[in-house]
Amino acid sequence: QVQLVQSGAEVKKPGASVKVSCKASGYTFTSYGISWVRQAPGQGLEWMGWIRAYNGNTNYAQKLQGRVTMTTDTSTSTVYMELRSLRSDDTAVYYCARVGGFGERFDNWGQGTLVTVSS
Amino acid sequence: EVVLTQSPGTLSLSPGERATLSCRASQTVGSSYLAWYQQKPGQAPRLLIFGASSRATGIPDRFSGSGSGTDFTLTISRLEPEDFAVYYCQQFGSSPMYTFGQGTKLEIK
Questions:
Q1: Of A33, A40, B10, B74, which sits most exposed with the smallest number of CB within 10 A?
Q2: Cβ separation of B45 and A45 shorter than 8 Å?
């Protein structure tokens, strides 16, 4: 079955960077894209960006351009999301999600990774 | 940018009742590109409906989606205790690629 397993919780200071991993299994990794979605405490879902697994092409949300980088390692079926210059309002649960169908839906999700930004 | 507005913000109903959740888009959304998700506390979202009306794998038939253009609806025909959760609509477009509604909380009355 499809599984997306994310790395563990992180605590970072303002200005630091964080890198979250998402390891995929149960499907052909290079046949799908992966999106990252975050959720601040008590808030809704915010799309961060998308990466095509087979060639690393990306599309980032405008508000995060310049601070976020998504990469892929096809040898380990793992996608990474790095967020730099962290601020307190980056505190959130970060989810990876497989992009299914024709790219219009998120059909499988990771368990989420809590990133806390605090001095 | 397409903005999705969900209503109501909170819906209070009893098990066995019918729930109707609305998602309105600021611009026309292709029906193929509208999805619904369910999220329970402490869990990741789960895909319920894609293409406005197609149920995802394993989703009970009490969940149904409808709509086109700018108005979309998620209906739960007879609420089960496990259906009380937050529901989000999501659209796929050009820029940004994806946007979510702000969510509707379905709570037990």
A1: B10
A2: yes
Mean pLDDT across the stretch A47-57? 95
CB atoms within 10 A of CB B74: 27
Chain B CB within 8 Å of residue A109 CB: yes
Residue ranges, chain B, pLDDT below 70: none
**Whole-angstrom distance, CA of residue A19 vs CA of residue B35:** 29
Distance of CA B108 to the CA centre of its chain: 17
The span from the CA of A76 to the CA of A74, in Å, is 5
Taking only the tens place, the pLDDT of each residue in A89-104 is 999 999 999 999 888 9
Angle at B63 between CA B60 and CA B64, to 5 degrees: 130
Q: How far is B40 from chain A (nearest CA, A)?
A: 12
In terms of CA atoms, which chain A residue is nearest residue B30?
Answer: A104
Determine the Cα–Cα distance for residues B36 and A106; give it in Å rounded to an integer.
Answer: 10
Contact list, B47 vs chain A (CB under 8 Å): 100, 105-108
